[in-house]
Amino acid sequence: NLANNATETLTIVCQVVALGDLSNYANVTVYQNDTNTSNNEVNITVKSLPIVDLNITKVVDYGNGTVNVGDYVQFTIRVVNEGPCDATNVTVIEKLSSLLNMTSCHVSEGGGSYNVTTGIWYIGDLKAKASVSLTIGATVKSNGTISNFVVVTSNETDTNTSNNNYTIDNITALPVVDLNITKTVNASHVNATDSVLFTIIVHNKGPSNATKVNVTEIFDENIFKLISNYTEAGYYNLTGGYWYIGNLNANETVNLTLVCKVLIDGTFRNYVNVTSYENETAPGDNWAEVWLTAY
Fold first, then answer.
1. What is the tens place of the pLDDT at every residue in 111-120?
2. Are the CB atoms for 53 and 157 separated by under 8 Å?
3. Cα distance between residue 288 and residue 181, in whole Å
4. What is the pTM (predicted TM-score) of this model?
């Protein structure tokens, strides 16, 4: 029974389990005659929109936290649609660092395609509970700090945006060089009191520029007397027994010439060694020697 001018309310809470237009119809009737039946029914329509929960992760395989120029680094990005609906127009922004050069790229089955120029991995449609992955191989082409950030989006409303992006820990890329040194003498057999010309050549094969390049070149002043020296890079210090070059760019070559007077007779060995601040990839050619016999 409903008294005159009284009101009653019914509240129903429902869970939406399907997409589309959801219609609901309600109608009221009474035992008595109703003087206005036009307001005895109501119909509402609610549009059910899809929702998704996209989850993106990224794993980097590069060793112990640092890499050298020339090393290989592998990135694996995985996207999971936790549902409950299928996702459409799924897109991942994955822009590689300018310090890297991509050497390989593999997308799992149904994972769309990756454009290295734009840095966009287009997945397209991704069903609920499905996952896809992208694996990128790259070499380190320059030293510095490698950072990387990925983010995934879709047409649908995402119920948890906190897992739509992922940032890797920064990777430190260290410079490496391959210094090569050679030494020659213009005559291997001379007379005591003759003058000889030593030539030392240092070449940086790269791939990085070298800094604090230094050559050990020690002369025994009981055997040789330095008459003159010339270098186009740095300076030679006779007392300290070193040729300080300083900076030497990748693929750059410098030389030092030394004119010495032989003071005594005998057979003598002269040894030189080159070092730099950077890691050396092939230390076997960082030294050289010449032999000289004076009569």
1. 999 998 999 9
2. no
3. 6
4. 0.74
The pair of structure tokens assigned to 287 is 């030294």
CA distance 67 to 81: 33
Query: Which amino acid is present at 62?
Result: Y
Residue 236: beta bridge partners?
A: 243
**pLDDT score of 225:** 95
- Edge-to-edge strand ranges of the sheet holding 210-217: 189-190, 287-294, 266-275, 210-217, 242-248, 235-237
Strand partners, 124: 90
- Alpha carbons 136 and 146: distance in angstroms, whole number: 15
Tokens 């287009």 locate to 122
Judged by DSSP in three states, 222 sits in coil
Interval 197-227: pLDDT, tens:
999 999 999 999 999 999 999 989 999 999 9
Give the whole-angstrom CA distance, residue 19 versus residue 211: 65
Structure tokens, 125 = 């449609």
